[in-house]
Every structure is written in structure tokens, then in C-alpha cells.
Write a structure and sequence with these properties.
alpha+beta; 300 residues; 8 helices; 2 domains; Glutamine Phosphoribosylpyrophosphate, subunit 1, domain 1; five-stranded mixed sheet; binds glycine; 28% helix
Length: 300
């Protein structure tokens, strides 16, 4: 937020990229950057995108290895190439050409989570589980989750920029890209309308062009909350045609969250299940706000 304040406000894209870098740099967070959960081979592969409203341009990387600040590399793609999306080996070579440092992103804690997953995947392979006592509770819990960060900023001029960054679905197939690096799926900005970003099961967000669809709803007059609800319901209706995405109670067995911001500064977060929050700074204070939701979460 400090970066957006007068008298010398930064470009809102620099503000959102700096914001998510705080978490990308944190080895104790397992959703993005350093310490992110790896693919099925135990290698961390990052996805990120950014979009600059006033320029109407975007940059993105997918399957980026060994460089923790994927959102910064995505910004470099936007600013220093004629492309929008660079993947895999090419993304790493591009990042190194611009001075990003290579490092092993797999922390010991994330490696333990991956090992726990491998050792509990099958009774018939050669990976033997350690006694449960060897794995702390947080390892077992984290090993079954995934995470992503979306950050949008609206500055005093009414300009909007946004970024989405992630280590993607935990234990994914190597090379799998989610929604975060796909412009229109996990991130979208139209400077005349607003922005949207998403977290959760990227496949459904790609299939429904989720973030673009929310911004289009807002373009036609919907408030951020109503726009997110309309698209989340569409995502659910489409996903439930696939039996393996249905829980026994008929609800989706996956999570999706949509976060939208409009030109007037109205915002909303809408989650598949109750209990989620998102962080907002309105220029005077930072706060956590409850997400709206489609389904009451079941008590466990
Ligand atoms: N939404 C993050 C992912 O599916 O990779």
C-alpha cells in the first residue's frame, strides 16, 4: 500500500508484484515461490501472470523452475518481450538473462510433504511410509492442500494492475500449467472496468475463462459480488457434468475462489465453500474480509 501513496506513487503493477513477493520469498508458505509444493517428481514449478490495465498488456510464465519470484519474471515478460507467455526451460533462460538468481526452491518441509504424499499414494509401490509419528501434523495437512495468491491494485488515477502467482496444484504432473499464468483464466484486467483473479482448481478456471468472464459481467453492469457468483455458478454447472468432480453429496469436490475489483473500488471475494477470507487495504486500513460463498462448508 505504501508504494501507491502520493506524492510519488509507484506503478500499481510494481506495488502488486512487490506485495506477492513478500510471500514468494517466505520459505514457510507452501503456496508460492520458495517453499512451494513440488510436482510429482519433487521439483517446484511456478506459474504467474501480471496484467497492466493502462497499457492493456500482460506477461506470464508457466513451469518456471529455480527462480522464486515468478510474478517478477512475468512482469519482465510484459516489459521486455514481444510475447505474453513463456514456459519451462525458456522461462528459466529468460529469467537468468535478466539477472534473476537460480536456487533450489524445494525446502526441507515441502520435501517432507512430498515424501508423505509419495509414501501414502499406493500400497503396491516401493516407497515405504515412515511411521506417522515422524511426520508432524502440519506436513500431513499441507500435503493435501494447494494455494495461490492473487493481488489487484487500483490507484488514485483509477488505474488497475493485477498479478496471480502460485506453485500450482501440489504434486501435479510435470509441466502442468494451471489458471494463474493464463490471461483470462486466473487473472484479467480491463482498465475501463475492473479486475478479477482466482485461486483453486485451475482446470475449471481455464475451461470457463473464469477471470475474463467475471470482468465481462462487470462490464455489463454487475457488481463484483454478483459477477463472481454468476461465474462460480457457471463453473459448478459445467464441472458437475464430470462425475469424478462430484462429491457423494452432489456438490463439487474441489474449491474455487474468485476475487473481483471494479473501477469504483468496490470489491468481492466469492468462494465455493464458507469460511474463506481475503485481505483488503482501502487506503486507510488493512483488513480481512469474509468471502461470500456458494455452499456451507461441512464440519469436520
Ligand atoms: N489455481 C492454481 C492452480 O490451479 O494451479
Amino acid at each position: 500500500m505504501e508504494m501507491l501513496r502520493t506524492p510519488k506513487p509507484a506503478d500499481p503493477l510494481d506495488a502488486v508484484v512487490a506485495g506477492v513477493a513478500l510471500v514468494e520469498d517466505d520459505p514457510t508458505d507452501h503456496s508460492v515461490g520458495l517453499g512451494g509444493l513440488p510436482n510429482e517428481d519433487g521439483v517446484v514449478e511456478l506459474d504467474a501472470s501480471c496484467m497492466h490495465g493502462p497499457m492493456g498488456r500482460a506477461g506470464a510464465v508457466a513451469g518456471l523452475r529455480n527462480v522464486k519470484n515468478a510474478a517478477s519474471v512475468a512482469r519482465m515478460v510484459l516489459r521486455r518481450t514481444d510475447h505474453v507467455l513463456i514456459v519451462g526451460e525458456g522461462a528459466l533462460r529468460f529469467a537468468k538473462a535478466h539477472g534473476f538468481k537460480e536456487e533450489n526452491l524445494l525446502t526441507d518441509e515441502a520435501r517432507e510433504m512430498w515424501l508423505w504424499w509419495k509414501e501414502h499414494l499406493s500400497e503396491t509401490d516401493k516407497w515405504l511410509a515412515a511411521p506417522d509419528a515422524d511426520y508432524p501434523e502440519n506436513v500431513r495437512i499441507w500435503a493435501q492442500t494447494t494455494g495461490t495468491i492473487h493481488c489487484s491494485a487500483l490507484d488514485a488515477n483509477g488505474d488497475i494492475c493485477a498479478t496471480t502467482t502460485t506453485s500450482g496444484l501440489a504434486f501435479k504432473l510435470p509441466g502442468r500449467a494451471g489458471d494463474s499464468p493464463i490471461i483470462g483464466a486466473g487473472n484479467y484486467v480491463d482498465n475501463d472496468v475492473g479486475s478479477c483473479g482466482s485461486t483453486g482448481r485451475g482446470e475449471e478456471l481455464i475451461l470457463n475463462a473464469g477471470s475474463f468472464a467475471v470482468v465481462e459481467q462487470m462490464r455489463h453492469g454487475a457488481a463484483p459480488k454478483d459477477a463472481c457468483f454468476a461465474i462460480l455458478k457457471r463453473i459448478v454447472a459445467n464441472a458437475l457434468k464430470t462425475p469424478r468432480l462430484r462429491a457423494p453429496d452432489g456438490r463439487p469436490n474441489f474449491d474455487v475462489k474468485l476475487y473481483a475489483l471494479n473501477k469504483a473500488g468496490d470489491h468481492a471475494g466469492v468462494s465455493m465453500f464458507s469460511g474463506a477470507k481475503y485481505a483488503v487495504h482501502d487506503g486507510t486500513e488493512a483488513k480481512l474480509v469474509d468471502c461470500e460463498f456458494l455452499y456451507e462448508a461441512k464440519k469436520v
